[in-house]
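Example record used in the benchmark description.
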Amino acid sequence: MHIIAIIPARGGSKGIPRKNIKEFCGKPLIAWSIEAALEAKLINEVYLSTEDEEIAKIGKFFGAKISIRPKELSTDSATTKLVLIDFINRYECDILVVLQPTSPIRINGLIDKAVDRFIKTDVDTLATGFISYQYEWTSVDNTPRQQLKGWFYDDGNIYIHKPYYLKDGKYWGEKRACMVIEEYYNYEIDTECDWIILEALMKHVNN
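Model output (structure tokens):
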């Protein structure tokens, strides 16, 4: 069984310019995802998908193989699904593990735990996340949080796919698993405020 991890990292981030290679706790942001993937025992190959030469150079330095994607797949309107479809049409694998660099905290064997769950439950798609109790205001009356059922929110940390349905243009398969993980994994970087919070959290969990 061949398992590939892909880290999508385009160069044109708008919220935080050059976010993917900005220094985060002493390393470029993408380095944290690359190193976590390389440390995972169940991952066979680690690829960084980018159109950006500088990002590719840094990714290669930290040990990732580089997949240069078409520039049209690095615009604001390009979806992750299209990036993955392009990738699996060029690289063969049995399982594709997607690690977004904006979720840098993956400690204590998180990737291996997710891949192991994926294999043992024999699903097509797995996502990590948490149970959210946030609802649109006035939609649940004044119900105490303890009485709310909650719903699964995918946190962007890890997605695992079987390639067959991606080749058919779908983003998930029929059999899906929701993997609830510890709260400190659930945060991702989209804004400068997120960056400050995640740096403090990373320093805390690594101590």
